[in-house]
Amino acid sequence: MAADDPDIVDFVRERAHGGTTMLSVCTGIRILHAAGLLRGRPVTTHHTAFDEVDRWDGVELRRGRRVDGDGEVWTSAGVTAGMDLALAAIETWSSRDEADRVRTYVEYASGADRSLDL
Q1: CA nearest 87: which of 73, 105, 72, 69?
Q2: Alpha helices in the chain (DSSP H)
Q3: Could you tell me the pTM of the whole model?
Q4: Greatest alpha-carbon span in the chain
Q5: Amino acid 114: pLDDT
Q6: Strand partners of residue 74
Q7: For the chain, domain boundaries
Q8: String of b and e for 62-98 (b: at least 16 CB within 10 Å)?
Q9: Cβ 49 vs Cβ 43: under 8 Å
Q10: How far is Cα 64 from Cα 72, in angstroms, rounded to an integer?
Q11: For 107, left (φ over 0), alpha (ψ -120 to 50), or beta?
Q12: Measured distance CA(117)–CA(22) in Å, rounded
């Protein structure tokens, strides 16, 4: 498992301390936890890992598709929720127009208020 690989965990920890916002999809959250990046933060993950995350000290599990967290750590549930997370990041760091452009390009409709205008 990647979260048990010290080289991967150290790589992630080093990037996080450089001011990089960390985005995690699905159970990739295990790597962030192993790197010590989740204490005091709200997170989500794939529903099959909810029980595991509930046992982590100092981590607030939110059962949802996406948690933008505190700006430093963003997490999402499964694979399609990862698309939602990526589009939210694009919107935050660029603009809604840019997120919509990407959404249309990859032919991804997310949320009840979104549709593809191809």
Answers
A1: 105
A2: 6-16, 29-34, 50-54, 79-93, 96-105
A3: 0.85
A4: 46
A5: 46
A6: 23
A7: 2-105
A8: eeebbbbbeeebbbbbbeebbbbbbbbbbbeeeeeee
A9: no
A10: 18
A11: left
A12: 31
- Positions annotated as catalytic residues are 26
Mode of pairing for the β-strands spanning 66-67 and 73-76: antiparallel
| Rounded Cα distance, 1 and 13, in Å | 17
Amino acid occupying residue 55: R
Tens place of pLDDT per residue across the chain (118 aa)? 899 889 999 999 998 987 789 999 999 999 999 999 999 999 999 999 999 999 999 999 999 999 987 779 999 999 889 999 999 999 999 999 999 999 999 999 765 444 434 3
> Which residue from 42, 101, 100 is spatially nearest to 76, judged by alpha carbons?
42
Q: Distance (Å, rounded) from C-alpha 78 to C-alpha 47?
A: 8
Write down the residue that tokens 């080093």 correspond to: 14
d(CA 1, CA 3) in angstroms, rounded, equals 5
Residue given tokens 């965990």 in the structure block: 9
Separation between Cα atoms, residue 53 and residue 113, nearest integer Å: 31
| CATH class in words for 2-105 | alpha beta
Residue type, 54: D
Q: Which of 69, 81, 63 is nearest to 16 (CA)?
A: 69
